[in-house]
Specification:
single chain; about 200 residues; mainly beta; four-stranded antiparallel beta sheet
């Protein structure tokens, strides 16, 4: 095991870039919070955004574009994106509660509250007008976490204060609920796509 960073600030929610050469993560707390990128070979971290949602939020989605050039995250305004090299972040879509890249291509699945229910949409390319996804049933739960399995065959969903995970076969199938001892904070698929 090799230390990645040595400063005393809190560091959470690391995500490897597609080529495995960089890691995006959230550093700091409160007004000092920032979205950072750092090479796994060392060097200084680069702050690429200063407006991510609070790391104390139940779920904090960060994911890379497939080409590794950009990092998507949930900002105070919605789904935002920043260049991995730094620069000014831009808002992709407002009013989202969760987002995840589809298993293939550049499209993004988003969850959005519509009235008192959560509905699901796809934006392709990212930022385009979202189109509804009929394969995932709407729910009264506030979905704040979406993640596809490594093989792209299943979608994991989670909501705050709900002691269960929801598993949706992709692109279609019957939604199942898996009981969990507590509200899952940051569920992750194992490489075998069978365990979380």
């Amino acid at each position: 095991i090799s230390p990645f960073a040595f400063d005393d600030e809190m560091k959470v929610f690391p995500e490897y870039s597609p080529d495995g050469k960089s890691i995006a993560y959230v550093r700091g707390a409160g007004r000092q919070r920032g979205l950072m990128v750092r090479s796994v070979d060392g060097g200084e971290s680069i702050r690429i955004a200063s407006d991510p949602t609070s790391p104390s939020a139940p779920h904090f989605p960060i994911f890379w574009s497939r080409d590794g050039a950009r990092v998507y995250y949930r900002s105070l305004k919605g789904l935002s994106v920043a260049s991995a090299a730094g620069g000014e972040p831009t808002l992709v879509l407002p009013d989202i509660t969760a987002a995840a890249p589809l298993p293939a291509g550049d499209a993004i699945l988003i969850a959005r509250r519509v009235g008192n229910v959560t509905k699901f949409f796809i934006t392709d390319p990212p930022g385009a007008e979202p189109r509804p996804v009929s394969a995932i049933p709407e729910t009264e739960l506030r979905i704040t976490h979406l993640q596809f399995s490594p093989d792209g065959a299943k979608l994991c969903m989670a909501a705050p204060r709900v002691s269960a995970l929801m598993i949706q076969p992709w692109p279609s199938g019957h939604l199942s609920t898996v009981p969990f001892p507590s509200s899952p904070q940051q569920p992750r698929w194992m490489p075998d796509s069978r365990h979380i």
